[in-house]
Amino acid sequence: MTHELRLGMAERLRDAHPHLDIRVVCDSGPLGERGSLRSARRAWAAAAPWATHHLVLQDDVRLTGNFLDLVGELIEHRPEGVSSLFVEWGSWTASVARVAALCGAGWAEVVDDYVPTQAVVMPVALAKDVSAWFEEALGGDEPDDVTLRRYLRSAGLTPQVAVPNAVEHRDATSLTGNSRHGMRCATCWTAGATSLSGVDPRRSVTGIDAVPVLAWWGEPGAYFRFRAPTTDEGWRKVPALAALADLGFGEDHVLRLAGDALRRERDTGHARRLIGEHLLSELWIAAFGLGVCAAAAGASPAGEGMETRVGRRALGTMALGAVRNRVPRPLFAKAAAVLTPVVRDAVRVGLAV
Questions:
Q1: DSSP secondary-structure letter at 186?
Q2: pTM for the full model?
Q3: CA-to-CA distance for 214 and 318, rounded, in angstroms?
Q4: Which of 88, 200, 229, 302 has a CA positioned 20 to 30 A from the CA of residue 6?
Q5: 4 pLDDT exceeds 90?
């Protein structure tokens, strides 16, 4: 799916993968959020008559190696499900994907109020229902990812994200105002991945009640989302130290662990100069919370999941996903080099406590 202003991008994606039989669906209407909804409605209606499943790709994605076989394997394990093949590195769902990677699970529940729609596959019958729902929603101003989430919620369906991710998001100028969000890279994508090695596609991390994140939006800092079915969103947001106290880890204890750990880190000085003392401490606390939640979901206290290919990649994107709008892009490589050890140390402590 694309807009006429990015038609060339969609055509290059199609031409680079002739074996996939990609059909370009193009919108020519005015820009804005409904632009994505218009093209998405057409895309979900474009399923081939002989198909059992329908895959919609946005024009700004890169595909992993052996993409078709990988998608076939994913469908085999979730034939009736709605499956996203991407999740951006700073979202709430990214944290669930990291927990899944640490647990060796091939799927993670979508816990945001939108579905990552850069690449989604679902049964054809469901795709037709989605297109019809989008037709009715065109009078509003929701983007397609929020509208899809709303439809699935009404249908009692829970979308899940594949771990590892099968596509990467290209850094292209957004037509719908999302450039202010900064780079939105995948949580755990590796260009050469050709199979789901390192994870079990029969396993999924769902029903998780506490999700930690270092927020890149609003007030910077470490937070948790707790499942709250009686609220409109279904979740409540709590500062991480208070959330960890509710989980049995006192504030003084967590701050002492963070302080001791950051004093041990070789590149703490560089890290402080990049993001500041407060945000560095909050990054450690968020990553510690991730380890705690992964342990509760069944990850090994010894941290074996941290050393798999997907586990290393998932943890390697956590810091940049949070500070992408606070660190200049020329310094991204340096930031990853000095902040990822902080994340890994904190996750290891969280797994073991």
A1: B
A2: 0.94
A3: 8
A4: 88
A5: no
